[in-house]
Design brief:
Elements lengths: L1 E5 L3 E3 L7 E2 L4 E4 L2 E5 L9 E4 L4 E4 L1 E6 L6 E2 L4 E2 L1 H6 L3 E6 L15 H13 L10 E3 L3 E2 L6 H9 L4 E4 L8 H13 L3 E4 L15 H7 L3 E2 L11 H10 L3 E5 L4 H13 L6 E4 L12 H11 L5 H15 L15 E5 L9 H7 L4 E7 L2 E5 L13 E3 L10
Bound molecules: zinc ion.
Length: about 400
């Protein structure tokens, strides 16, 4: 399968260093980016004219709470994953399947949390949802788990574990042991931070805990929804080196403080993004892009850097090979442009002003899953155009 994107006006790499590429066309073969600015071949399954618009990696939402496929019980909504695809998201990482109706947070056993993760990986995580890959099956760690449980998780393809209900300060040695067991099996460790969450049962976590726990990703450090104290945010930036996540569910004031400090210290490569939805914040198809726009429109980051936080940074922190526009990587790509009425003459100006762009196409592994315009954004003033398309392979998705 061969796809070519041409007529690119602005190309964003998804990498914090060198976030812009001087590229006018991208060739895609069998779902992966083959190269840039090649002489066009004569047979393509799809040829897409970006019409001078912007090309960027599909967004990576590092913090979602799936339950059962596209149904979310927290808002009793259907089809949320497909709606997020139309907001530009092509990959999601579960932060735990904790919204299963009837789940008793006060009585979670090692068997139960392991079983939930295994079932989630084998269902929501097994297939793509309108192209979107959801890395589901993130185990919510509880005391009493043994290496046997971690073996079961690894065998089921679970890639992440998370501390949220675990009494970290009361059981430090046990927590550190679990971090080691997870890493020995190639799993990454996330931890809920800040105040109590919607569950009412999550444990508070700030710098003094994170300093010894040393997770791979500290989740929603500016609030999910309640942030840790300002001094803890500062200390995290100054004295630790792991990934720091900001979520759409958080406290904007704390996000501004965190981002400014990371920028001052040249540490933007540590910043990852998520929505922390579905949940009490709702179902927000444009949520991740809105958080990206807060970084570019309010926090003073360049549009290319803000895009990198929502794509390459988040993918790398979770060990995923998506989120960058580079040869050999999956061709998960968003084509977007400025909307009539938004600030400035181009996509970059709109993002710098914090204005939402119009998404006209989303490709997942080279296959156009959104064609012409997104159902969730205003139309781009100049949408991408498709030609010489052979859509017979669409039925394979
Ligand atoms: Zn969460």
């Amino acid at each position: 399968m061969r796809v070519r994107i041409e007529g690119i006006g602005e190309c964003y790499s998804g990498q914090i260093e060198a976030s812009r590429l001087d590229v006018q066309s991208i060739d895609i073969v069998d779902g992966r980016i083959e190269g840039f600015d090649r002489v066009p071949g004569d047979s393509y399954d799809a040829r897409i004219d970006a019409a001078g618009g912007a090309v960027l990696p599909g967004l990576v939402d590092g913090h979602v709470h799936p339950a059962f496929g596209e149904w979310t019980p927290t808002q009793d909504a259907q089809g949320w994953i497909g709606n997020y695809l139309h907001g530009g998201t092509t990959t999601m990482v579960s932060a735990g399947e904790l919204h299963i109706p009837g789940l008793d947070y006060a009585n979670l056993s090692p068997e139960l949390v392991t079983s939930i993760a295994v079932v989630s990986a084998a269902t929501t995580g097994r297939i793509r949802w309108r192209g979107v890959r959801v890395h589901a099956g993130t185990c919510l760690l509880v005391p009493g788990m043994t290496e046997h449980h971690f073996d079961r998780l690894a065998a089921a393809g679970c890639r992440f574990v998370k501390f949220i209900f675990f009494p970290l300060e009361d059981r430090r040695e046990e927590a550190i042991r679990m971090v080691g067991w997870a890493r020995a099996r190639g799993m990454r460790v996330k931890v809920h931070t800040g105040g109590v969450s919607r569950s009412g049962a999550s444990r508070m976590c700030g710098y003094s805990t994170l300093d010894w726990l040393q997770p791979d990703v500290a989740a929603h450090v500016s609030g999910g929804p309640i942030p840790m104290p300002d001094e803890d945010i500062d200390a995290l930036v100054d004295h630790t080196g792991f990934a720091l996540e900001v979520c759409s569910s958080g406290n904007d004031r704390s996000t501004l403080r965190l981002v400014r400090r990371l920028m001052e210290q040249g540490q933007l490569a540590r910043l990852t993004l998520g929505t922390d939805t579905p949940g009490g914040t709702g179902v927000i198809p444009r949520g991740l892009f809105r958080t990206l726009l807060f970084l570019s429109g309010v926090c003073g980051m360049s549009p290319g850097e803000a895009i990198a936080c929502a794509t390459g940074n988040t993918a790398r922190a979770h060990g995923l090979d998506v989120g960058v526009i580079a040869p050999g990587h999956p061709a998960d790509i968003v084509i977007a442009g400025r909307v009539d009425g938004s600030a400035g003459p181009g996509f970059e100006h709109a993002l710098a002003h914090g204005d939402f762009p119009g998404i006209s196409s989303v490709l997942v592994e080279g296959i156009p899953m959104v064609i012409g315009r997104s159902e969730q954004t205003p139309p781009a003033a100049r949408p991408a155009l498709f030609s010489c398309c052979n859509f017979s392979w669409l039925g394979n998705r």
